[in-house]
Write a structure and sequence with these properties.
Elements (H helix, E strand, L loop, with lengths): L1 E2 L6 H24 L10 H11 L4 H20 L8 E2 L2 H15 L5 H4 L12 H11 L3 E6 L2 E7 H13 L12 H4 L13 E5 L4 H10 L5 E5 L10 E4 H8 L1
Parallel strand pairs: 5-6
Antiparallel strand pairs: 1-2, 3-4, 6-7
């Protein structure tokens, strides 16, 4: 951004106008990302802070946008006056703002990287089969699907608690072939009651927002991808804590 005591050239004025239009697009995109209607009265600074809280991966862009917000305010207040714009916008600033807008308006969908076949189990599968799949595939979480309907999530935690209960009760032996998934699913950690360990999102959900949920929800283990973003349609992808850890790196 450079100051000038003289009237701006036509090209400089065009760059300023493009800067203001781009910033308006960013504001509109932030409202959409935050689920705010165009009529909702929300200051730009609040929109920036709220989205940065929701999506920590956006924090660097948020810092840059806060600077551009101050410049936008100066330009907006002098827009249409006889004196005209007091400053010109550099090409680098305009390019940077455009990149921020592009990231918000055309995000990479989570399905680009994580739409894949998901291994599931059913209520009647026995624990021996499940543990065999754990060993063969290296998975630690499985959606439970019965006749095409989602029935929950079984993880290492439930399996360990189920085994631990039998050790505590001094059972002489444990037959994994007779233990079925629907019984193991009942072994929930009481301290996790009411805390979500999995979510559903749509296939077009922004990848950075999806990954950010693991950073803001420490107990989250899995996010499932479906067309409608709920358990009412087939699971078409999965994101785990390990995926989120690699994304953060």
């Amino acid at each position: 951004m450079t100051t000038t005591p003289h009237t701006l050239t036509k090209r400089q004025i065009a760059q300023v106008e493009e800067f203001l239009h781009t910033f308006a697009d960013i504001e509109k995109a932030l409202r959409k990302r935050l689920g705010k209607s165009a009529r909702a009265q929300s200051r730009v600074s609040w929109l920036i802070d709220a989205y940065a809280t929701k999506n920590p991966y956006w924090s660097e862009m948020a810092d840059r946008l806060r600077t551009y917000k101050d410049i936008r305010n100066i330009l907006t207040h002098r827009r249409g006056t006889k004196v005209g714009y007091p400053v010109a916008v550099t090409a680098a600033s305009l390019q940077d703002l455009s990149e921020i807008a592009q990231a918000l308006t055309h995000p990479s969908p989570i399905s680009d990287q994580f739409r894949r076949q998901v291994t599931s189990v059913s209520n009647d599968d026995n624990l021996a089969e499940v543990l065999g799949t754990v060993f063969d595939c290296g998975f630690s979480q499985f959606p439970v699907v019965n006749a095409g309907k989602f029935g929950g999530l079984i993880t290492e935690s439930e399996i360990v608690r189920w085994l631990g209960r039998r050790v505590r009760d001094q059972m002489p032996e444990v037959n994994l072939a007779t233990a079925v998934v629907k019984n193991v699913l009942k072994e929930k950690d009481p301290f996790m009651r009411g805390i979500a360990v999995f979510h559903f999102v749509t296939l077009d959900a922004p990848v950075d927002e999806v990954m950010a949920r693991f950073a803001t929800e420490q107990a989250l283990e899995v996010i499932f991808l479906t067309k409608c973003g709920t358990n009412r349609s087939p699971i078409e992808g999965i994101v785990t804590q390990w995926d989120a850890a690699r994304y953060a790196d």
